Amino acid sequence: MSAIRERIVITGIGLCSPNGNSLDEYRKNLLDKVSGISDMEHRYVGTVHAGICNFDTLKYQNKKALRTGTRAGSISIYCSNEAVRDAKLEVNNSNRDKIGIYIGTTEHGNVETENEVYNLSTFNYDVKFWTHHHNPRSIANNPAGEVTMNMNITGPHYCIGAACAAGNAGIIQGAQQLMLGEVDFALAGGISESIHTFGIFASFRSQGALGHHADSTKASRPFDMTRNGIVISEGGCIYLLERLSDALKRGAKIYGEIAGYSMNSDATDPVLPNAARQAECIRKAIQNAGITPEDIDIVSTHATSTKAGDIQECAAIREVFSGPGHKPYFNNTKGFIGHAMGAAGALELAGNIPSFVDKIVHPCLNIDELDPECALPNLVVKDSVKAEKVDYILNTSFGMLGINSVLIVKRFID
What we know:
Strand content: 15-25%
Low-confidence stretches: none
Number of domains: 2
Number of strands: 15
CATH superfamily of the largest domain: Thiolase/Chalcone synthase
Order of helices and strands: EHEEHHEHHHEHEHEEHEHEHEHHHEEEE
Radius of gyration: 20 Å
Strand order of the largest sheet: 5-4-6-8-1-9-15-14-10-11
Largest sheet: 10 strands, mixed
Mean pLDDT: 96
Helix content: 25-40%
Oligomer: single chain
Structural class: alpha/beta
CATH topology of the largest domain: Peroxisomal Thiolase, Chain A, domain 1
CATH class of the largest domain: Alpha Beta
């Protein structure tokens, strides 16, 4: 992008999702159309559909750390360690103070508070039984902070609260800090522990926006006529970012290059999206990348499976990609894994990054009858398609209170 003095590249990816705990497994399940949605029992709200992760929590943590830490921290630790391992980076005394951790979250602290209040109720609300771990568990920087202690990283860490735009926002923050020279490596992306609070399920249900279906694997149905709401999921995806010059010096594998990005605000409604502001965000990211809409090959849509949300996003996309030239392929991931909130954008980008190599565009899932208001040219509906080229991927993420984020990654060419 025009403001970038140093090129920023992706050299490691670590993830856990409802349908895969590595990039290879996750990608294979997207291509094979494997859903990660199942049912769970939740206090007060009963049986709900959810995207539940099943990763090896003891791979990088011991049992004591799991007891005193948080689910958000555990997801962050797993993904960050996997990203560093994938990048073949050794964390040591020469670099631990130059590694920054920037993790996007939708929310944090409510899971711990909700569970601790419930536990306290079993002791007749006698606060002498309140856990002394509450404060470090519930502070906003907890997920990133737990990573620093687990990996002995002494560089800066914080969490970026950006609703469902947070995954992209974490990556953007990491790239910016690298450009500023504040760090040499950035662990950046997004995580979610949202399924562990009953409040989010109850709230979406009260709004009429909680997805439901007789078959849990079909409950998340972005763009389908019968879609009826969000399926809430947990998960995480953390990227190892570094300056190209450094990556080349250490012979790192390069997945792709950050080409451009943009964030803006609707400033109109706490929940309902604004298509015009979303279109502005997309256009600005493309402009900052120094390209045109015709250069984009894949658009990974946000596509929450809500009636208004999907329609408004498709209106924004049509406004930007209405020219007569090359049209990108459009897909989405929430049909497979549900809405992973703060992790959504980072996970959805990861599902498309292998397309730089194999040129295969994974399909949407559960579109049995396409809503005409969500019809897009080159929407990959049933089966994967082989593209002639994949040089640019555009990833959209939009969140409550009207926060919008768009990230563009390009195929690395030395």
